[in-house]
Each structure stands twice: as structure tokens, then as C-alpha cells.
Amino acid sequence: MSSNLIRRYVVVGSRRTSNYIWAIICAIGGIDFLLTGLSSYFNINLLPIIHADNIIFFPQGLVMCFYGLLGILFSCYLGLTILWSVGGGFNIFDKQNGIVRIFRWGFPGKNRRIDLTYPIDEVTAIRLELKDGLNPRRTIYLCVKGQRQIPLTRVGQPMTLEEIEVLAAELAQFLQKDLI
């Protein structure tokens, strides 16, 4: 949402499509591994495509049970982060009231809500960090008095160079601050 005096940017957080896909894949894989390991222990075919007599419980079946439990636990973790919308939130730049508000959801507990509000006068600049390589990082930071830098962009899926440059320039122009 944009207007002449207020800009609002939504941050998706953990409710990305890739997290849904990975949670489903890990759940299916974990259940399959666990059922295969249990099939070898009980000598019963719990899955129609697996023949338990071909798998010895110790060590193959036991390891498959272990990997199955790990897959199920990881898919539960991903499911909970999606349910809680960890990392999701918004950034509001309000010239009308003279404030910048950054809101994010965290993990449940006393610090579940991360809500930062600063007067626009305390914003010194917008900083753009671009690192390429094996683990690329493309982040826009809000520089506030006191050497504090607050990341504004989403984590996990880097934006294209063009998208992040346009967004940073647009934001710096809107706030009338330097882009560094």
C-alpha cells in the first residue's frame, strides 16, 4: 500500500511457498522412513511397496526409524513456524505522523511481538548491502542514530538486484534520506 504520506510494506516471513513445500516433503519422507523401519522390526509390510524381509532391523531399520523421526520433527518445526508466521510483519513509513514502524512476529514467549517505532528525524540513512557468491545477501537496512541498523527486507529468498535497488532508492527518496 502506498500513498503520498504513508508507505506500508508487508514482510512474508515463514509463510513462503517453499516452506509449505519443504514441510510436506519432510513429513511424507519422515513417515515413509519411519514405516519402513517399523516394517523391518515387526516383519510386516506397513507400506505396500516395501518388502520388510529385505531390510534387517539392526542397523538399517533402526537408522530408518531415526531418520523418519527426524523428518517428522523437522516438518513439525516448519509447520509451527508457518502457523506462528515467524518473521512475518510489516514496515510502515508514515510522514504524516513522522514515524517509522517495524513490526515482526517471533516465536511464542515474552518476545513474540517485535515492534520498533522511531521518529523519522532519527533515521540517518538507508543502507543497501549486496554480497554475491555461494550465500548471496541482498538486504536493505534502516540506519538510525546511535549506529543502529535494522534490516527491512525478508530473509531467505534474495530479491533480484533490480528489485532491491529500486526499493532502496524509492524508500530513500520517500524519507528524503541518503542511500549508502
Automatic annotation (TrEMBL):
<dbReference type="GO" id="GO:0015979">
    <property type="term" value="P:photosynthesis"/>
</dbReference>
<dbReference type="InterPro" id="IPR003359">
    <property type="entry name" value="PSI_Ycf4_assembly"/>
</dbReference>
<dbReference type="GO" id="GO:0009522">
    <property type="term" value="C:photosystem I"/>
</dbReference>
<feature type="transmembrane region" description="Helical">
    <location>
        <begin position="20"/>
        <end position="41"/>
    </location>
</feature>
<dbReference type="Pfam" id="PF02392">
    <property type="entry name" value="Ycf4"/>
</dbReference>
<comment type="similarity">
    <text>Belongs to the Ycf4 family.</text>
</comment>
<keyword id="KW-0602">Photosynthesis</keyword>
<keyword id="KW-0812">Transmembrane</keyword>
<keyword id="KW-0793">Thylakoid</keyword>
<keyword id="KW-1133">Transmembrane helix</keyword>
<keyword id="KW-0472">Membrane</keyword>
<protein>
    <recommendedName>
        <fullName>Photosystem I assembly protein Ycf4</fullName>
    </recommendedName>
</protein>
<feature type="transmembrane region" description="Helical">
    <location>
        <begin position="61"/>
        <end position="86"/>
    </location>
</feature>
<keyword id="KW-0934">Plastid</keyword>
<keyword id="KW-0150">Chloroplast</keyword>
<dbReference type="GO" id="GO:0009535">
    <property type="term" value="C:chloroplast thylakoid membrane"/>
</dbReference>
<comment type="function">
    <text>Seems to be required for the assembly of the photosystem I complex.</text>
</comment>
